[in-house]
């Protein structure tokens, strides 16, 4: 279920603006990798290239390679829709579909693709996914209520359940806790710890404590100024990055002397 | 598949608009090319007929705008800045109700209620202010004059102008308003300093849209006005310049041969006039969007 | 220093704000004086009937002037101007209510006498003078409006989807601009267009219902596009992204996520656009004409419609004038009721069916 991600010399453009330059890194299966760095350094942009979501923005394009288990996502004949089924994503703000019930939200990925599914299969998938997202016990009595009735933290876990219901290989999380209170954040962080047994997880976060708590490896990105492209500064084990970074600017950022 | 059908639908709109122009031109060409004597008895031809109609159209619409614009701005300000917050939305709905009334009902109301009601007032105007050319006699005995039409048109375009004006007034940045109030301005001074300058481009486009509607309004004019094909600035007489739209509505059912082409020709002219007016309105709106940073 | 600033009076001396009581007294005084003047004029025979509207207007003007003078004396120039403008603006609103109230009142009063079973049960076939009804016109209006809706909604909806979800660059800009321009097409020009279109194929005598539907579509499509566009833009981009991230293709995302989220607003917009065109008269007068008999067939022959029925009953009054006028007013009343009902239902839909998550 879990796969290795290799990024080779990747440049990301918005029209003519180079947003991310020359990133190369390898993410091992069943690990949590955190992307940290100041605002505008391209970490979210890079994350979105891993499931080709950046293409949703007009004018966005990439140069270089993103390989998942050796297969180039940007190779000829690769359908971005298929890529996104293998690489799930959780967004900054919880975004359950307002017209759907909790149950329908969970199986949205299957249903929206017009795939037929027996009721018992669907029930199993709903329970499994909600269990997987640590939400089952809280919502099992109200699966037919709208998803927007849940609290922010519950909504975010619903979105995680929705993402893992399509059984992806990789799970991308774009600041998944930035809109949540500390208790909900803790619940999500615990969940990430459990999910890494099954998925390769990449998480973008502004919260350095969070990065040090949940991730195995950390990548630090930085920009030299506005209008300049974001670059990968340092990529190493999380403990190394936080305790013994090799690059000065990483240390400045970690210790709060920057940004 | 799906995206293609969406594209086709979008292009269909362009095609329809082009078709409107093409078919109108095709059907009105005979009128432009015909022998002037075939079109009107005095031999002045198509353009001789069209001149007074264009004048009447613009004249009636301009009068309507003159009445409607100050009222609309007043109402919009009342709803956006003066009426109690709780009432404001309900009051907005009430004004919107006016927009829901079909124009033929306005026509019926104009001729049976408004015209008789204002006629005595017209008599008084002619008697006392007759020395002003606009109010020159002899006064119409029925009240079916261009001024009455202008009042009806004003009521009809009022909800359009009000709706847009209200919208732009409500979009005034709160900070600007509070800045003015914090300087010790009264409410009216705040409106002058913050609300009106901010809303000006929006008001221009609202005015143009209202004008466009007034130019093309048909039934109310056709029913209320006692028409002739003349150019006259007198507001209260029984001889009134008629409008293109009303002239078409009144004469089309009985028209035949070249007469039909002449009427379609005038319609093409009306189309062009409203096109210009509406384009100005759109440009004003787009300008405003570009500069205000809103949206 | 500090004490001095603190002791400075907050309000300039001589400033005495007008109390509510003063304002009410002024209003009462103005009303009494104004009605008094008109009463005396009436007695003296200067006016024919006691003119309530005139008296109200004079009272309002009087009140505004009085308040201005009082405020000028006791509150100063700036406050007085403020009161003057507030008074004027409020008057503008009240003045506008006059025609609305008058119009609805007359329509109801004049329309009620023939608002009977006969009106809704019979056509004008072989009716001269009293009797008859508007059933044929009602049916015609419903059919033509229905046909126009069937044409306009798919075109309008898909165009809006194109503009919001797919459209980029020149073409989208052009469509947006021309949709705006189309919004301003005078209704009679739409009628002429439909006539010119069909006259080329069927000759200049052509009159039929579907032509009217085409004319109304020209008026309706831009309204549908605009309102649908607005509603689609309100759907948060996050929902689209959420669906994309689940590996849902774009068209399915639109059909299954975007449209259901916006559906209440879209339906509201469609209903409002129907209410906009259902009262159109001029285009129908040109391309559909008028008939006294029932005609269910959109594709052949003249058809009666309510708005045109109002017009022709008024324009061609027979011997029994009142009977014709009554039918005109009743049709007008029916039209207004239909339009109001559409508006009301539209508002209810938008109020109750919008997904809660979007508020």
From TrEMBL, chain A:
One of its GO terms (cellular component) is membrane. Keywords: ATP-binding, Nucleotide-binding, Translocase, Transport. GO terms for biological process: phosphate ion transmembrane transport. CDD domains: ABC_PstB_phosphate_transporter. Residues 5-248 form the ABC transporter domain. GO terms for molecular function: ATP binding; ATP hydrolysis activity; phosphate transmembrane transporter activity. The keyword Transmembrane does not apply. Signal peptide: none annotated. Gene3D superfamilies: P-loop containing nucleotide triphosphate hydrolases. The keyword Repressor does not apply. It comes from the Bacteria. This is Phosphate transport system ATP-binding protein. It comes from Alpinimonas psychrophila.
From TrEMBL, chain B:
Residues 54-281 form the ABC transmembrane type-1 domain. It comes from the Bacteria. It comes from Alpinimonas psychrophila. Coiled coil: none annotated. One of its GO terms (biological process) is phosphate ion transport. It is a multi-pass membrane protein. Its main location: membrane. GO terms for cellular component: plasma membrane. GO terms for molecular function: phosphate transmembrane transporter activity. PROSITE patterns: ABC_TM1. Belongs to the binding-protein-dependent transport system permease family. CysTW subfamily. The chain crosses the membrane at residues 46-79, 91-115, 121-139, 146-165, 190-211, 218-238, 258-281. Gene3D superfamilies: MetI-like. This is Phosphate transport system permease protein. The keyword Membrane applies. PANTHER family: PHOSPHATE TRANSPORT SYSTEM PERMEASE PROTEIN PST (PTHR30425), PHOSPHATE TRANSPORT SYSTEM PERMEASE PROTEIN PSTC (PTHR30425:SF1). Keywords: Cell membrane, Membrane, Phosphate transport, Transmembrane, Transmembrane helix, Transport.
